[in-house]
Specification:
The protein has about 325 residues and is α+β, with helices and mostly antiparallel strands. The protein folds into three domains: about 5-15 and about 115-155, no CATH class; about 20-105, Multidrug efflux transporter AcrB TolC docking domain, DN and DC subdomains, CATH 3.30.2090.10; about 160-325, Multidrug efflux transporter AcrB transmembrane fold. It is about 55% helix and about 15% strand. It contains eleven helices and ten strands. The chain has helices at about 25-35, 35-50, 95-100, 130-150, 160-190, 195-200, 205-220, 225-255, 260-270, 270-290, 290-325, and strands spanning about 5-10, 20-25, 50-60, 60-65, 85, 95, 100-105, 115, 115-120, 120-125. The strands form five sheets. Strands 1-10 form a two-stranded antiparallel sheet. A two-stranded antiparallel sheet has the order 2-7. The longest helix has about 35 residues, at about 290-325. The two termini are about 75 Å apart. The mean pLDDT is about 85.
């Protein structure tokens, strides 16, 4: 993460290693001397940090009374070698170095646990005008290599903005599925046919392809805002196709032949659809140019999706309709003679 220029304050929550002094008790010598690990620990703590013996009561004050070495006897680490260990049970007094070894090392200053598991959190902040998705895209190759090399029992869990983005994707996908289902049911009742709603949604995949192509061409990441722009395209594309199909159904009720209805719908609804799409795209351009890294993916996704989906819904969707009516004969077209 530090090698990426868009990152600031890269660190982990365990901090840097600190200098520690470790006492390693020799169990054989300690047993022969009648000294326990508790005796060693208690003597060392008492000599250096102090051990509370009692409280001195003065009026309404309770003053702790601690026993420890004088400051000139514990000012240096070498003074630890001169300590004596006092046995609690046998009252023995033995030099500390007779039953233990003093070792110096650099070790972790603290250990963080999350849900009872030891967890190291790597934290980084993006520089101004930089997106988290851009930083993670640059670091993705090394992060994936790191994940693959993790030994058994270790795992990497995303947090921060990436975790919120994944949660946002899940929530938005759920809302999008519910919306599509509701639109499908509404069209099912409106057209009284299960195939026509599918034809209405026929242009949606092409709109998604147009959005992804626009993001690739403009070099924008597939962020949450881009996904939000693609999700909002569904309603716009469906509304345009409904305008087209509504005119076809209206001509059907008047008894007009199928081919004439299809051609008239394309001609009559061409101007309203183009005006709506053109106004939307033109309105999105200023925000796409000056909206910054937050709004640019959304705007480019909608511009690309609307542009391609409009061509598809005006050209291919009527062709699909004709295939289902004339060739497959799944959709019935009956005219009043």
């Amino acid at each position: 993460m530090r090698d990426i220029p868009e990152t600031l304050s890269v660190r982990n929550d365990w901090f840097e290693e600190s200098f520690i002094v470790r006492l390693e008790v020799d169990p054989d010598r300690a047993n022969l001397s009648g000294i326990t690990n508790q005796d060693v620990a208690l003597s060392a703590v008492t000599g250096l940090s102090g051990y509370q013996l009692t409280n001195f009561i003065e009026g309404d004050k309770s003053i702790p009374v601690n026993a420890r070495l004088r400051i000139d006897e514990r000012a240096e680490l070498s003074d630890l070698e001169n300590l004596y260990v006092y046995g609690i049970e046998n009252q023995e007094k033995i030099p500390l170095l007779e039953v233990s070894t003093i070792k110096y090392a650099m070790d972790t200053s603290r250990i963080i646990r999350r849900e009872h598991f030891r967890t190291i959190t790597v934290i980084a902040f993006p520089t101004p005008n930089a997106l988290t998705s851009t930083i993670l895209k640059k670091a993705d190759k090394e992060i994936q290599s790191f994940i693959e090399d993790l030994p058994p029992g270790y795992k990497l869990v995303w947090g921060g903005e990436r975790a919120k983005q994944q949660q946002g994707f899940r929530n938005l996908t759920m809302i999008l599925l519910i919306s599509i289902t509701a639109i499908f049911l509404a069209l099912l009742f409106q057209f009284n046919n299960a195939i026509k709603p599918l034809l209405v949604f026929a242009a949606v995949p092409y709109g998604i392809v147009g959005s992804l192509l626009a993001l690739v061409i403009m070099g924008e990441p597939f962020s949450f805002m881009a996904y939000l722009g693609i999700a909002s395209l569904v309603g716009v594309i469906v509304s345009h196709v409904i305008v087209l199909f509504d005119y076809i159904e209206e001509m059907h009720k008047k008894g007009e032949p199928f081919k004439d209805s299809l051609l008239d719908a394309g001609v009559q609804r061409l101007r309203p659809i183009l005006i709506t799409v053109g106004a939307t795209i033109l309105a999105l351009f200023p925000l796409a140019i000056h909206g910054g890294p937050l709004w640019q993916p959304l705007c480019y996704a909608q511009i690309g999706g609307l542009a391609l989906a409009t061509i598809i819904e005006l050209v291919l969707v009527p062709v699909f309709y004709a295939i289902f009516v004339l060739d497959l004969k799944i959709v019935k077209w009956e005219t009043n003679k």
